[in-house]
Amino acid sequence: MTFRGAGINVDHMHMGDLLRRGYDHPEAEIAAICDADPTRKAAAIDDFAIPGDRVFAAVAAATATGPDLVILCPATADHAQFVAQVAPFRANMLVEQPFASDLAGANRMIAACAAGGAMLAINWPLAWYPPHVATKRLIDEGTIGDVLGCISTTATSAQVRLRHRGQQGDAVVPRFRSARDPAAPRRPRGSRRARGSGRGAGPRAG
Predict the structure, then answer these.
(1) Which InterPro entries does the UniProt record give (predicted)?
(2) Domains in the chain, start-ordered, CATH in brackets?
(3) Helix H or strand E segment including 120
(4) Among 201, 199, 186, 98, which residue's Cα sits nearest to residue 156?
């Protein structure tokens, strides 16, 4: 049995990484790619040799192909809207992190999936990042004793963080900056560096 996946809305750059998982798997295939903007889906079409009859501009048309899983990578502010469109087709969904732009949006997504009988998962790659998994295992096994706290420092590209587009479209973008992006707005003087951001190389929150 071949597992069929569909990618809907390519606003976030992780769509290519997620589609690659299906493309490289011997028991999976890309059943559909969908975005109203032809330029955003062009790279995926070329990279994964997606035939024209699997390319769509409308969410309903792409979901009607009956995929086993729909991957959604819209801007965070649009997550609830797209989940609500897909849920009636009873297609299980993997939505790019973060969950939603606010609690109301998250509740709307949960309600839509419950009504449509669909499962919903949030893609958070660091949840299965090997060092994190190993650390959790060592803690659970008691190998390193009682752990009172944990801080993870990762160096990530500001481009990835900015593509989430914040709570209201581009509202949160000015909060993040990177040493590699000197043109980005700087955090207010005296503000604390957010835990988990890489010193120097990663984004910072003000």
Answers:
(1) Gfo/Idh/MocA-like_OxRdtase_N (IPR000683), Gfo/Idh/MocA_Oxidoreductases (IPR051450), NAD(P)-bd_dom_sf (IPR036291)
(2) 3-123 (3.40.50.720)
(3) strand 120-123
(4) 201
